[in-house]
């Protein structure tokens, strides 16, 4: 973990893992400069989680931290994300925080784009036991709802449910990872220790999209601000 007072940005998905990573670095004394997200080419949704940008803005407002976004196709994603990191470096950030746990290809990509932008990558959750991380998250008072499930891994009926200890046991019993590290599920954060207020979200229609990383289909629930 970087020294107290170190300015940092966070790759912010809108879900639980990036929020826990942000929390750990901020709690250790890091100074957040911004949270970052590259939306799809239409600017209407985030990539993995399928969140509306207004949900991200509400999260940023609750954090008291600026939200910086870009739009990109998958082909242009790396260039746009690197540009956001370079903007962060220009604003004084020295580190970039990511919520990955043990996916080595993700870490290597993050190290590459950080090197290109002149930032030091930080992965505060790296190689920690999945269940330990979920238990920490819940114990700290984070509240998150399931916004996406990989159809080959979990039932669509889990969409919209709030993550708690019972649901984590249910997810594990179905053979999925407790944290959803392999994309089995994604969440939208509605409250946590870094929020000044909880988000009020209402579930909208169901949808389906492809991950962009193969033929896998992901079912999504369209949360809107209530």
From TrEMBL:
Tell me which residues make up the Diphthamide synthase domain.
11-199
From what superkingdom does this record's organism come? Bacteria
Q: What is the lineage of its organism?
A: Bacteria, Thermotogati, Deinococcota, Deinococci, Deinococcales
UniProt signal peptide: none
> What name has this protein been given in UniProt?
ATP pyrophosphatase
Ranges in a coiled coil: none
The UniProt entry, under InterPro entries, shows: Diphthami_syn_dom (IPR002761), Rossmann-like_a/b/a_fold (IPR014729)
